[in-house]
Structures are given as C-alpha cells and as structure tokens.
Amino acid sequence: MMKVVRANVIAGVVALSGMALFVGCGKDSRDAGPVAAERTKGPLVLAVMPEMPPYAYVDTNSGEVCGIDIDIVKAVAERLGRKLEIRRVRFADLLPSVKDHKADFAVGAITITEGRRRNVEFSIPYAEEGAAFLYRSGEPMPTMVRVEGRHVGVVESMTHDFYLTRHGIDPFRYGTIEDAIKALKAHKVDTVFYDRPALAEVAKASGGELAVTPLETRENYGIAVRKDRIDYIEAVNAVIRERKAK
C-alpha cells in the first residue's frame, strides 16, 4: 500500500556542536585571478532536504537551515568566492535539481550509490552512518527479519525505501519523516525505517514514547555535485579533506 503525504519539515532537533565553518580565501593578493572572477557571477545554489540532523536541519530558534552538510557547502562557497543560495526541496527532487542544473549542489545525508552517479557526481565520503528502525517503546524491537508482514514507514525515494523493496517489503511511503513519525504515533504503521542519527534525536525527544534500534545498514554520505563542474567537485573534496585532518 502506498501513501504519500507532504508536510512541513521536522522540527525540534539539537544544535550542532564543534563544527566551525572553514575559512576560505581572504581578500588579499591571491584573490586576483579565477577566484576574483567567480565573485562577479551569481550565487551558487544548494538544494537541501533539512530533515537529517545533525547533517541538515532547521534550527528551531532562528528558523535557518544548518548542520554539517550546510557547513561544508558554505565553506566551498567561501573557497570559491561565491555567495550561497539555499533552497529547500523534497528528497525526491534533490538529485534531479542537480542533474537539470537547477542547483549546483545537493545535501541531506545523501547516500553515495552507483545508480545515483549516473546523474550526478559525488564528493568523497564525509561520513559513514546507517539506517535503523524507530518503534513504539514496549513493543518488540523490529529487525529486518521481523518486519515482514508489518507496516513499515519510509520517506519516498530514499535508499531506505529501495532497501526494503529489495528485501521484499512494500513500505508505506511518506513525503517527510515528520509524517512517517506521526503515522507511527497514530498506529498507522508499526515502525519507521530511516537514518539512525535523526531517529536517535526523535527518540530522545519523545520522553520514552519511542525507541530506536541499532544500525541495520551502513552507508557513505556524500555531497552531490553537477557532473560538468569539476572545479566544484575538487573544491568540495578539498574542504572535506581539510575537515577530516583537523
């Protein structure tokens, strides 16, 4: 059974700590040349689905999109001497936006896959995470073996959706993780399959109502970049390497 619902992005996530922005090229003699020329161009466009704390989420106090992914691309824009325009989109629209050149980058804890590489380029991995199940406390803990025949909620077009399908499970599909969690609380689904870092924050904020399982999968996250902009790809990789070296 398929159910697609659109709603506002998830709120109530923790603030990011210890992730200072990388300082790009200063306004000195080194700006003469390609970087200075880039400054005369329009802003770089970043497509983001801000439902993936701590990687991309909406700060409940400022209302701004922030997180690890955002910091990386802001550092890239600074490095290239460009302004950055952030556009919020559904996950299903992230990669098409980059493929069609409506955006230069896309983020939102995007898993690197060979299938996705046909349409966009990816940076080197900046994090290794994975998916888990969110469930109502007091009920049997879900595992991939135990969810057959049960109602599982996912966000449409994400790797979790494809993973379950490959394992013979037809999930209930939602437009946002917020809607999937609402369905879980309303007993419309038995569990939700999603990235564990985000689910851990949801469980923590639920006051014991919800719980999260250990990792079921392991995935590499990368920044999606336009295939025709090797300079952007190199800049993203440079920023990620510098951050890893700290």
Question: What do you see in this structure?
Answer:
The protein has two domains: 29-127 and 221-245, Periplasmic binding protein-like II (D-Maltodextrin-Binding Protein, domain 2), CATH 3.40.190.10; 131-217, Periplasmic binding protein-like II (D-Maltodextrin-Binding Protein, domain 2, 3-Layer(aba) Sandwich), CATH 3.40.190.10. 41% of the residues are buried. 30% of the residues lie in helices and 21% in strands. The chain has 246 residues and is of the alpha/beta class. The protein has eight helices and 15 strands. Residues 1-39 have low confidence and may be disordered. The protein has a five-stranded mixed beta sheet, with helices on both faces.
